[in-house]
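User: What would this chain look like folded?
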Amino acid sequence: AECSGYDILVSQAADTLDVGNGHTMTVIRAWSILITDDPKSVYNLTTGECHGTILATPDGKAQASGYCARRDKDKDTQSIQWTQAPGAEKGEWRSTGGTGKFAGRTDSGWFQGVNADGKMSVSRWGGKCR
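Assistant: Here's the prediction, encoded as structure tokens.
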């Protein structure tokens, strides 16, 4: 089945290493809350953190990857891996593990940033969820 919603992120930290010539690496850490289009989705109102690394290369293209770990009101947990290819507008995510209602899930999909203002950002996401 299709699933979709928004990921509201608040940046906690972003540390950048600049090695010169347009080559940087930024490590990010953000709080995350998912709001789903279907309020009955298991992902609705799950909260946690996302961590990742953004690599900017001298060709002007950035790529990124990392993980998010969240839990719901029942304390069931779920994690995803996310990646964004060099210069791509959309990234990809896939489930990497979970407990309770999230155990054994193989959900995956896409995400795309839709708004950013200072430490806050919003991504639209969708995909295949069982």
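The chain has a mean pLDDT of 97. If you want, I can go into more detail on any region.
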